[in-house]
Specification:
The protein has 333 residues and is α/β, with parallel strands linked by helices. Helix content is 29%, strand content 17%. It binds S-adenosylmethionine and iron/sulfur cluster. Iron/sulfur cluster is lined by residues 25, 27-29, 32-33, 71-73, 101, 123, 328-329.
Amino acid sequence: MGTPILFDNHGRPLNYLRLAVTDRCNLRCYYCMPEEGIKYLPKNELLSFEEIERLIKILAAMGITKVRLTGGEPFVRTDLMRLIKKIIGTEGIKDLHITSNGILMAPYIKELKSLGISSVNLSLDTLDANRFKMITRRDEFAKTWETLQALIENEIPVKINSVVMDGKNSEDILPLVELTRDKNISVRFIEEMPFNGEGSHYPKLNWTYQKILNHIQSAFPSLQKISDPENATAYHYQVPGYRGTIGIIAAFSRTFCGTCNRIRITAQGVLKTCLYDDGVLNIKNLIRSGKSDEEIKQELLFAFSHRAKDGVEAETNRKQHPKVSESMSTIGG
Ligand code: SAM
Ligand code: SF4
């Protein structure tokens, strides 16, 4: 039997789950979390591995084929590799990806390779150790850099995620582009979104997709637009002759919603059918109230058939927390 295909109410196929396995993190990135005063969820508020495995089985049978583990920092969750093995072994799941800051990842890279991990997105906003410390509020640049090298050596596809912040790391844009000269990696620049646990940093986004592009083009006039993979959120470019590629993600401008194929499950087990909604279904409560797989499936189908058409509509429909200000560490990016 072929893979089932799941559609939302706007005819968009849904095949991609982004799952936050924890809200905890070993960094305090400026754009993601406040420096102090974070209240982590009690452990029993997180989905257990058994609950996650059950949920992924249900979703895979409905048409989800790709899973990304994110957080918080996925590698601070105890025994993460056990969960990874289970997910990779789930019937119907073809690709497992991880988004990580890389600090705790190096010892697991060989095993991840042998398990067939599809790719790693590594957060790295600067190549300068002092700025790394200022942005993440921790002195850990060397470990992330070591993980980047090890991923490349082990031929695991890598994308670097770099959030462009006004007055914090715009001087890193061009050095990060230069990394693609001899490394076969993709460096993606992301518009900063207001998901930082504190509310907006700025009255208005300065480093928009267009401004990032203009800045790169002014230093690399030969920059070429290359084709974007299906369902990509990034616009892709390449400096001719360079091995790697560049992506720019209009995460705040939300220009990619028309082809969005993704759903999210937060660290507390809540379904989001758009990054900008404030949660549309509490799956953890369904599981813990003893619902059957079929009952959970029906609730999921209802949510998928009431999906906002884009991130602007999803933001307008927010009920419990009208203003976007929750930390990305609970959502998973
Ligand atoms: N801890 C892991 C990491 O940093 O890669 C995974 C979780 S993190 C929340 C996932 C992604 O969200 C990271 O690439 C991070 O740069 C991005 N992110 C976090 N807060 C953001 C914000 N306010 N605007 C844009 N991207 C953000
Ligand atoms: Fe942690 Fe990732 Fe958020 Fe940085 S972006 S604080 S590494 S969850």
